[in-house]
Amino acid sequence: MKVISLINMKGGVGKTTLAVNIADCLTRQHQATVLMLDADPQFNATQCLMSPSEYVAHRQAGKDTMLELFDRRRIKASSVHAPADVPPKKLNEIAVVEARRNLFLLPGSLDLYRLEMAPGEGRENRLKAYLSAISGDSNYDFVIIDTPPTPSVWMTSALIASDYYLIPVRPDPLSLTGLDLLKSIVDDRKENYGLAVKCAGVVLTMTRQGTNVLNDAKAYLYGDNYWKDRLLTAEIPSRVKFAEQQLDNIFMLDSDASEMKSSIVKLTNELVVRVS
Ligand SMILES: Nc1ncnc2c1ncn2[C@@H]1O[C@H](COP(=O)(O)OP(=O)(O)OP(=O)(O)O)[C@@H](O)[C@H]1O
Ligand SMILES: [Mg+2]
User: Fold this and answer.
1) 106 with 37: CB under 8 angstroms?
2) What domains appear along the chain, each with residue ranges and CATH number?
3) How confident is the model at residue 156, as a pLDDT?
4) Which residues have any ligand 1 atom within 6 Å of their CB?
5) Phi and psi for 47 in degrees, rounded to 5?
6) Mean pLDDT value of segment 125-146
7) Whose CA is nearest to atom 9 of ligand 1?
């Protein structure tokens, strides 16, 4: 089982889009069984994999979300719920949804925003604890974790649980200068928690061929001693039509734009090699 987080403190760079589409591509093109963990309170990855009515029904039926993992309800002050009469579920009893064939999801929850305000020591270890708890019974080939654009407890928990992290980045100067800051924050987490998590690569997203910003971005990354070996050759093109269809649960593999489809296939192939 390989655990890969999508991270970047810059917002709107395509973390969620790639998390969902890499997971889809792994299941359909690599015959893999994949678990998606939506560790972003915005729960956009969940919205890409479940329709609004499916999600509402899921919540109304009291089924499990990321909250079950992070809000163990043992201490009143650290909970967004009233203290439970019953003890929290065992970690390996938390149920996931099969959102697509062989693509399983532990849905996110907006309540994680409220939870972040509450004390809760050790919360950053929960994703790791969950994956350890299920490792004996499950047969996931990959676990993909979507994270929020903040150096939050959710991002830290994802790094602690991961073998690798993948950085999507837009080819503009502000995004590129954020990369070194991201590296220093990851290095800090690695030192604080004794982690061996590795960078699986940087992928340029929402690119427009032939533009100066794209050429400048590549020149910058290939000219940098640290980033040059990490930049993946796959690039994700910018397609407004694809973005418009995203909440209709359309995947890149199903896109009518052939370059969109070939880019996710190429990226997933490269990623599989980098993490093997
Ligand atoms: N290849 C693409 N072409 C055009 N639009 C895209 C593409 N990929 C993503 N988008 C759009 O860009 C926006 C940001 O993408 P996405 O939500 O995946 O980024 P994110 O990094 O997860 O954002 P956040 O930091 O808020 O979690 C979304 O509206 C999405 O539909
Ligand atoms: Mg996102």
Assistant:
1) yes
2) 2-274 (3.40.50.300)
3) 95
4) 11-17, 40, 42, 44, 148-149, 205-206, 236, 238-240, 242-243, 246
5) -65, -25
6) 95
7) 14
